[in-house]
Design a protein that fits this description.
The structure is a single chain. By secondary structure, the protein is α+β, with helices and mostly antiparallel strands. 30% of the residues lie in helices and 24% in strands. Strands 8-7-9-14-15 form a five-stranded antiparallel sheet. Helix 5 packs antiparallel against helix 6. The structure holds magnesium ion.
Length: 279
């Protein structure tokens, strides 16, 4: 078998890029619905139902449920829970920091995105400042990684952009075991998208590349443990954590964030990048 001839290109055609907008829009809707519902007293199971309704109302299906053994629309990572945490019935509390990770599939094409929400605690201004700062730095690290796609020649420049920013702004830990990825016909495809500098240049950044860029940052160390449910990943040192993620397409005229209502315009403007809709 000529494996080389059968190996699929990581680069999507213009028509395929256009098909990825609908699942992107579904994830955008789910993130918006959760963002307007999240507050102290709400459970992550309630947010899961809200996200599922948002996805199904636009004709999509939650794609996390396609992962063997996973039964939910979102992962909801509260405080020291960092990724892949299963939604539960614990009401969120003031002072919590929660990342909400969601994806959708439409006509066989996938999206993947996450936001972090810091819930202020008026009685603990130090805690409030800490969680807001952690989320802010993580989000801005994501935008720097996305912005770098607009000019990068190779994909490893994204990880350098993410890490340069985090290290200039903080002494936070950048998790290395959980990384971004290509996305398309499957939620997780080649190529890997690192959040730290790596020596291999990775693939060329050129039209047709679609990647999920997702820095996962902790306020402490970078070691993690997988809990007994075989899903929930928790910081080994109990430190707070945050995750932001977007699915981003590179096309002939520029880059476009598939999982943001404005294509990423607001997040990218301060970095001098203007996203362009997929032609
Ligand atoms: Mg992802």
């Amino acid at each position: 078998m000529a494996r080389g001839l059968l190996r699929k290109s990581i680069y999507k055609s213009p028509a395929q890029l256009r098909l990825m907008q609908a699942p992107g829009d579904a994830a955008t809707a789910a993130l918006a619905a959760m963002a307007s519902a999240v507050r102290p007293g709400v459970t992550t199971l309630e947010l899961d139902a809200i996200a599922e309704e948002a996805i199904r109302s636009v004709g999509g299906a939650p794609n996390f449920m396609l992962e063997p053994g996973y039964r939910h629309t979102i992962c909801a990572n509260v405080n020291e829970k960092v990724v892949h945490a299963i939604p539960d019935d614990r009401p969120l509390e003031p002072g919590d920091i929660v990342s909400l990770d969601v994806g959708a599939v439409i006509k066989g094409w996938h999206s993947d995105a996450a936001i972090t929400v810091a819930l202020p605690d008026a009685s603990r201004p130090d805690r409030t400042e800490r969680i807001e700062r952690l989320s802010h730095v993580t989000e801005q690290a994501m935008w720097r990684g996305i912005a770098r796609l607009a000019t990068a020649s190779h994909l490893n420049e994204v990880g350098s952009a993410v890490a340069d920013y985090v290290r200039a702004e903080s002494d936070y830990g950048i998790l290395e075991d959980y990384i971004g990825h290509g996305i398309g016909r499957r939620m997780h495809e080649d190529p890997p998208v690192f959040n730290v500098p790596v020596s291999r240049r990775g693939p060329e950044v050129k039209p047709g590349l679609v990647v999920a860029i997702e820095p996962i940052i902790s306020a402490g160390g970078i070691d993690t443990v997988v809990e007994g449910d075989d899903w929930t990943v928790t910081m080994a040192d109990g430190s707070l954590s945050a995750q932001w993620e977007h699915s981003v397409a590179v096309h002939a005229d520029g880059i476009w964030v598939l999982t943001a209502a404005d294509g990423g315009a607001a997040g990218l403007a301060p970095l001098g990048v203007t996203p362009v809709p997929i032609p």
